[in-house]
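Notebook entry, structure prediction.
Reason for the run: the old model in the group folder had no record of what sequence produced it. Starting over properly, with the input documented here first.
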Amino acid sequence: MRLHRHPRGTRTRLLPVRRGLLAAQIFLCAVAVTTAQTAPHRPLAIVAELDGIIHPVSAEYLTGVIDQSDAAGADIVVIVLRTPGGLLDSTRDIVTRMIQSRAPVVVFVGPAGGRAASAGFIITLAADVAVMAPGTHIGAAHPVSGNGQAMDDVTSQKAASDAAAYARTLAEARGRNVMLAAAAVQESRAFTDLEALQATPPLIDFTATDVDDVLRQLDGRMVKRFDGRTSVVHTQEHRDTPRRDDAPAALPQRDRTSGGRLPADDAGHDRPDGRTLESWRRPAGSRRRASACCSPFSRCRSCR
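New structure, fully documented this time:
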């Protein structure tokens, strides 16, 4: 910046042209700051889908999704869950990461015809918000041997007592039905969406037909976190936003089974209602299926 020199004893001043440029710069900066302050927040929902058995690979997938959602500053994480059950160690890993998530975690058992049995029931209990689609069911969480053989009475009783205490702890912390949670483990009880919703207190928060319906019903809802903190979830923006077809892909997560990156499914779309949706889906080739793997307590050969 050039200064116009005056005789000694007088003050220096900016040349008129420079002074005008400086004023323009200050004005532009003020406009930029004002725009940034008034720009509406675009809620970001990370949606992950798990259809299969709960084991170390699926646990790594879901914990990785929550890690990436924390890094992205997501407002909500929605896990679409369909599972016959799985390993207790993997279930505990998932539940622990859900509790530690920066954003509230929603577990949506759906679509219609799906189930979250055994380990899936525990994961649903642990969610900040538990949702079921019509025509789904949860429960049947009594432990069984992972090798398909019957456990002796002492081992079976110990396993059931341990799992029941875990279910009661999660249900009590979430304000859900403690007696029904224990009955699902000790008596292998299962519950339809209506039975879970109409219980007193209920096992779930509400029912929804799909992820869009889940997000609509979540908007403005007060959510209580595991540590007792409460926050209001905002999942909709009351303004029209054009849908972008060139949206960036979803955040990648390594898949230990295939050795590749998880592909995005409808990733990064800006919705007309202002939400941003990122969808995560496990590749079909990474699912390991084995009937003996439904136990939350023992590993079958395919999971070792």
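Summary: The first helix runs from residue 16 to 38.
The old model has been moved to the deprecated folder.
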